[in-house]
Amino acid sequence: MEQEILALKRAIIELERNKSINDDNTVIKNIDKIIYICEKIKEDFQKQDESVYKDVRCAKINTIKFIYKPLRVKNYFEGDYIVRFAEDRSRDLKDAKALDVHNEFWIQHKTIKGTIFGSVPKELLKEKELKSLLMSGWKEAEVDILEIKDCFDDIREIIKFCENRFSNYILIQEELTKSHLILNYKI
C-alpha cells in the first residue's frame, strides 16, 4: 500500500509539472495513471476490509423509507449537543403527535449502537405527522435492512463491522425474534 501512495504522489507531481508546460496529451495520461493508482488503493482497502470482517455475514432483507432528524455537527458528543438534540427530537415528535409511534417502534427494536439518533419508519406515520416532522427539518431516507446471518457471542465484532462499513447506521436487536439487524441509512 505504501508503494501505491508514493506512486500517487509522484503522479500528482508529474501532473502539476505537465500542466504548467501545457502538455495536454501527457496531462491526460497522468490523470489516467492517477485514476488507476487510486482504484488499486481502493481495491486493496476493500480486500483488507473483507478479510478483517469476513466472519460477520449479513444479508439485505428489505429497503424501506425512514424519516430521520439529521445531526448538524460532526462531533455530536462534544459539549451538550446530543442532549439538546434529544430534547429537540422529542419536542418535534410531540408537536407532530408522533411520539407514541416513534416510541412503540423503538421499544420493539432495541438500539445497540449507531450514528442516527432520531428516526421512524415513514409507513408508520400519518400524513399530518409526516408533514409536521418534515417542516421541523426532518429528512427522508431509504434504509437498507440487513440481517446478521450468524450468532455472535461477542456483539463487539458486529459493532466493529458496522463502524467500519457504514457511516449512517443503527444496529438493533429485534425484541420479538432476538435477531440482530443493521439499519443502513443511505444519506
Please provide a brief summary of the model.
This protein has 187 residues and is of the alpha+beta class. It is built from 6 helices and 6 strands, in the order ααβααββαβαββ. Strand 5 and strand 6 (180-185) form a beta hairpin.
Task: Return the domain count.
Answer: 2
Helix and strand element order: HHEHHEEHEHEE
Major β-sheet profile: 6 strands, antiparallel
Strand content: 15-25%
What would you call the structural class? alpha+beta
Strand order of the largest sheet: 2-5-6-4-1-3
Distance N to C terminus: 30 Å
Ranges where pLDDT stays below 50 over 5 or more residues in a row are 49-54
Say how many strands there are.
6
Give an account of the 3D structure.
By secondary structure, the chain is α+β, with helices and mostly antiparallel strands. It folds into two domains: about 1-50; about 60-185, no CATH class. The protein has helices at about 1-20, 25-50, 80-95, 100-110, 125-135, 155-165; strands at about 60-70, 110-115, 120, 140-150, 170-175, 180-185. The two termini are about 30 Å apart. Residues about 50-55 have low confidence and may be disordered.
